[in-house]
Amino acid sequence: MIRIVISNQRGGVSKTTTTHTLARYLADQGMRVLMVDTDPQGSLGLVLGVKPKHYLYSFVVHNFAFEDCVVKVAPNIDLLCSNRDTTKVEVALLGMTAGELAFLRIFGMIEDAYDAVLIDVAPSINLVQTCSIMYAKQLLIPVAMDMLSLQGATACLETTRMLTELFKTEIRPLGLLPTMVDRRFNLTSLTMKALEAMSEKYHIPLLHPIRTDGTVPRAERAHKFLVDMDNHCKACEDYQKAAAELLEILNVKPKPAAIEPSTA
Ligand SMILES: Nc1ncnc2c1ncn2[C@@H]1O[C@H](COP(=O)(O)OP(=O)(O)OP(=O)(O)O)[C@@H](O)[C@H]1O
Ligand SMILES: [Mg+2]
Fold first, then answer.
1. What kind and span of H or E run contains 33?
2. Whose CA is nearest to atom 29 of ligand 1?
3. What is the domain partition of the chain in residue ranges?
4. Could you list which residues have their CB under 5 Å from ion ligand 2?
5. What's the pTM?
6. Each residue's pLDDT tens digit, 81-126
7. CATH level 2 (architecture), domain 2-249
8. Which residues contact 264 (CB under 8 A, 6 or more apart)?
């Protein structure tokens, strides 16, 4: 079972793009994937053009049936959407005993139907994000090519360290994912160097970088997964390489069903 939070406290670093592109990659490998949006901006639903009847709030706070809240967005991919009401989830969690562990119980009840749960979070540290990390215990950190993104990644690692100490549990940053990489810019080489140093210092793998590619915003506007927009585009190729590295780190083999039938 794969559980990953896609996190960086800096906004606009490709958290949402990485979440749905990775989800689709895993689904294409034959895995049943649940995407959970915990960002009140509700980006995952907006990007994929989904309007659910009920959102994360109803599921977590009012115990609505999971089936009534989740939406199928592609074969093997379900999405639990977020909206502004997610800010009220925060308030509800504050009122719960050991609220930080609430998602362990809540998502523990439904996760058996899936092989992977990917959680997209808001660009800030809040209780919903802490809950997501305590549930998944694994993070993927996209880092765009600027210094504030690096700071956001460092803040993320600091939070992880604090939670590890506080709850005496191991939380594992699976990888740093360079995003919106454009080698023509000096800032890109500076940020990549800093990322290499960060990777060494914290012993976190540096994954295959994702190049800047206009196909990403175009796919977004068309409400499509990147692979459905253009499966040969630069970003798509890069995401496939990074995702394959991630599966190796997780020691996960694709399901036999995902293997193409032989034509021999
Ligand atoms: N590889 C890429 N090439 C070009 N544009 C990209 C790439 N990745 C993401 N983008 C664009 O950058 C913007 C921010 O991406 P995204 O929404 O995935 O970031 P985010 O970290 O989820 O943002 P937020 O912190 O607001 O939730 C989007 O408009 C997206 O289309
Ligand atoms: Mg986002």
1. strand 33-37
2. 217
3. 2-249
4. 15-16, 43
5. 0.95
6. 999 999 999 999 988 888 899 999 999 999 999 999 999 999 988 8
7. 3-Layer(aba) Sandwich (3.40)
8. none
